[in-house]
């Protein structure tokens, strides 16, 4: 449950939300993306001066919003290459052939050290946890959204995979004004993806905001010193 969350994201900046389990971080991400499973009984979501409050997830994605799933679903029968080509063509109003799009994908997959054989597998079917997370970041590289919401993209990853994912996120942001909202429990990924603004969320509310030092203070002291 979210309680009058007032969150302002600055264009082109890296924002981080940290908070204990059950504080509503993932709920906030889903609400921003327009998941119909969540009931919004007040407030507005304004993005690039457009009120997205009444728009569905597909429309929000067309405006440039992207959400990486914390637990990506398996979709049997849908190939990785076919799925990515469909969302790419929708996002950029293109009609790229499978062969031409595959060449684009191979370059992006190198950043994540993903084997080309992934393209012929069914989406997330039989993927390890780490492979699913890389698949989410590959979608980010394909779509190049205006706002990327990354929900615990570092959870369950070893340090090498965290660095790979971080490098890909930094690459995506390098030549664009992409805004990033990173949701995480840990500061490990923040060694590689440098935050500009850090929020602490607790009991459904944003209770504190600061710079990168706030994340370090949180790691040292825990959540207890940060009251409502």
From TrEMBL:
Gene3D superfamilies listed in its UniProt record: P-loop containing nucleotide triphosphate hydrolases
PROSITE patterns membership: ABC_TRANSPORTER_1, ABC_TRANSPORTER_2
Pfam family, one: ABC_tran
InterPro entries, per the entry: AAA+_ATPase, ABC_transporter-like_ATP-bd, ABC_transporter-like_CS, FeS-cluster_ATPase_SufC, P-loop_NTPase
Domain ABC transporter: 1-228
SMART domains: AAA
Alphabetical keyword list: ATP-binding, Nucleotide-binding
Alphabetized GO MF terms: ATP binding; ATP hydrolysis activity
Alphabetical list of SUPFAM superfamilies matching this protein: P-loop containing nucleoside triphosphate hydrolases
Keyword Nucleotide-binding: yes
Family: Belongs to the ABC transporter superfamily. Ycf16 family.
Family matches, as NCBIfam families: sufC
Record-given protein name: Fe-S cluster assembly ATPase SufC
UniProt lineage: Bacteria, Katanobacteria
